[in-house]
Amino acid sequence: QVTLVESGGGLVQDGASLRLSCAAVGRSFSDYTMGWFRQAPGKEREYVGHIDWSGGITYYADSVKGRFTMSRDNAKNTVNLQMNSLKPEDTAVYYCAAAARGYGRSFYYNEGTYASWGPGTRVIVSS
């Protein structure tokens, strides 16, 4: 397993941008597909997107498609989530998570797939 820590959260205004990062410590980072999830106040945690081990393939939830972009740097053991055109409904605690690579796309939509999780970073978008 890997240990994950997110950073970059904060308070921003509607329409602003924010970049979240997730640093991993542990065994080979490229062994993992990395996912981002979020949990808004009073709601269940939901899938945001995931990126394959190489960084070449990404998938996003419809709610963030076209606004959020994931990237990773396996040499630095980091994965990033660039969030543009933020909306108040994006307010949530954002979590990065790691899962074994090599499964089908839909496998990674499910939070139960992920064995390692960061503590989360809070994003608040004010209107």
Total E-strand runs: 11
- Total number of helices: 0
Mean pLDDT: 96
Give the % helix.
under 10%
Question: What features would you describe in this structure?
Answer:
The radius of gyration is 13 Å and the shape is globular. Strand 7 and strand 8 form a beta hairpin. It has no helices and eleven strands.
Main attributes?
seven-stranded mixed β-sheet, 127 residues, four-stranded antiparallel β-sheet
Q: Can you summarize this structure?
A:
With about 130 residues, this protein is mainly beta.
Helix/strand layout:
Blueprint: E1 2-7, E2 10-13, E3 18-26, E4 32-39, E5 46-51, E6 58-60, E7 68-73, E8 78-83, E9 92-100, E10 116-117, E11 121-126
Parallel strand pairs: 2-11
Antiparallel strand pairs: 1-3, 3-8, 4-5, 4-9, 5-6, 7-8, 9-10, 9-11
